[in-house]
Each structure stands twice: as structure tokens, then as C-alpha cells.
Amino acid sequence: MSTVMETTEQLAEQHPIAPYLRMDRMPHIWCPTCGIGTVVRCYAKALEESGVDLDKASIVSGIGCTGRVAGYMKLDAFHTTHGRAIPFATGLKLARPELLVTVFSGDGDLSGIGGNHFIHTARRNMDLLVILVNNFIYGMTGGQNAPTTPLTARSSTMPFGNFERPFSLPHLAASCGATYVARWTSLHIRRMTKSFKEAIQRKGFRFVEVIAPCSTLYARLNKLGTGFDLMRFYHDNAEIRHGADTRDVDIGFQDKIVCGKFIDEERPTFLEAMHEHYTKILGDRYVPMPPEGGWIHE
Ligand SMILES: Cc1ncc(C[n+]2csc(CCOP(=O)(O)OP(=O)(O)O)c2C)c(N)n1
Ligand code: SF4
Ligand SMILES: [Mg+2]
Description:
Elements: H1 8-14, H2 36-50, E1 57-61, H3 69-72, E2 76-79, H4 85-95, E3 100-106, H5 107-113, H6 115-123, E4 128-134, H7 169-176, E5 180-185, H8 189-201, E6 205-211, H9 215-221, H10 227-237, E7 238-240, E8 257-264, H11 270-282, E9 286-287, E10 295-296
Parallel strand pairs: 1-2, 1-3, 3-4, 4-6, 5-6, 7-8
Antiparallel strand pairs: 5-8, 9-10
Helix pairs in contact: 2-8, 5-6, 6-7
The site of magnesium ion has 9 residues, from α5.
């Protein structure tokens, strides 16, 4: 258990990413060999290596096992309602554009109940880094089918196997306008960290999907062993193809997983487009900079 008196160095001796965590909240709730913690570790490492000012970094999660991440990170953190992490983060970014705003949540939260927010926020190129842990299932609530569950995989609500076509999330993000799109598995520690670092430096809607084991539900319901067995599966079946056409990166049940950086391009963010547009139309009557910004001088 940490105390408020501990220095960053003392915390780092406990664990390399302890300075980035609320150690008073440990132990965390995640099951043994769950993949979420690995993604948190890579994100913390990316923050450290990017030299991000932690007073200017905030994190927003929705509900679910992955949704717990915000509560464990020692940043300005918001644990919002189910599916609403992206709109919450949008409000935060619009009010405080100088912040690095990261959304960190699960596949069900961001692409199920939050799916409509996801597509429109990508379309607007809102300046957010979105990290989505895809374990192919609603973990926290008992393993229900998710919009990402591969065809034929079992879930608690599809005990005879899923027959609904799942989303391929990189393709969804890319076709809606995301300017940075990557996918890794929780085995790709260095590449994932590098991707997070790169995405931190970029502007616009940046989307990184991380395929990770839900050992307790997805793996158990599908008789896939533990999270370690799934990591071995990723080792043998992940194929890195930078620049792959996102139409070709669907994931089948226990099939190959195409990883890599698929999209990395620039286009005006929502705020840039708004400022440019109103400056053109309103000239001096428009005050572009928040917190006063967005107003029209009468
Ligand atoms: C409005 C509302 N509906 C349903 C729920 C129940 N619920 C909580 S988490 C969750 C699914 C989360 O799945 P995912 O985002 O994939 O997270 P995981 O647990 O797999 O990391 C659901 C359906 C809720 N909390 N609020
Ligand atoms: S239920 Fe699944 S996703 Fe949730 S903590 Fe356990 S292993 Fe991880
Ligand atoms: Mg999930």
C-alpha cells in the first residue's frame, strides 16, 4: 500500500509503472492472465517515454472490466456511464483543448452501446486517442455476445456459437474517418507501446485496438485454456502487415490476426475545421481560443 509521502523513485522501485497508478487501489479486480493489465502497462510506458506532462493528460473510460482502467491510472481520470466515454471525452477536449485526452475502454462499451458515438466522433476527426481492448466479449457482465464476437465463437448468450457478423473495428474506424488506425495483441508489448507513443504525438481521432485475452469468460466458454494459451495463440497466428487494407483485416474464430499500423494520415481536426470555418465566415467577430472560444462578438 502506498502513502502520499512516497516519491516517484520509491514508487518505481515497487513496480516500473507504479508512479502512473493509484497504488492505494491495488489489488486490481482483473482475473489472473486477463490481458487488460498488459495494455495499461504499455500505455503508462508510452506516457513515460513521450515525456507527457501528467497534469495535462486525462483518461476517460466507460463501464466494463476495461472500463476500470481510468480508476487505476494516476491521471485526471473519469469513469463514465456505459458507452459514454467518447462523448464525455469530446466535451473535455472541447473545453480544454490543451489536454491529451485518452479514451480507454472495452469492445462492448465503445462499439456496442457506444457505437454511435464512436462513428460520429471518428467522422468529425475529434482530437482523441482511443484505446480499445477487444476481448471479443462482454467480460464484466458474464460473457454475453459482443459486436466483436467472431463467427462461431461461443458466448453466454450464443451457447451454440455466434451467427452475427462482427465488426472489424479498424475498418469501422478507418471508413468513418479516423486518421490513425492500428491493431496489436497484448503479446506485442514493444510494438503496442511504440504505437501508443506515435498516436500520442498525432492529432485527430486516433484508434488503437488491442486484442487481449478474457481468460475467465471468452477463453473458458470456448475451451481455449488460460490467457497464457491465448498469448501462445497470438504468437503463432498474429501476422504483422503495416498498411494493410482495413477491408482485409477481419478476425475469424481462432484464425490469423492481422496486426500493424493501417492508417496514419493528417486531416483537420474538429476544432481546426471549426476555427477555420468561423474565421472565414465571421472574421474578427469570432473568438477562436477556448476557454472564451467559440463565441461571436456582438
Ligand atoms: C446502460 C447499461 N447497460 C448495460 C450495462 C451492463 N454492462 C456493464 S459492462 C458491460 C459490457 C462491457 O463489455 P466490454 O466493454 O467489452 O468490457 P469488458 O468487460 O469485456 O472489458 C455491460 C453490458 C450497464 N452498466 N449500463
Ligand atoms: S472477466 Fe475477462 S475481461 Fe474481465 S477481468 Fe476477468 S479475464 Fe479480464
Ligand atoms: Mg470486452
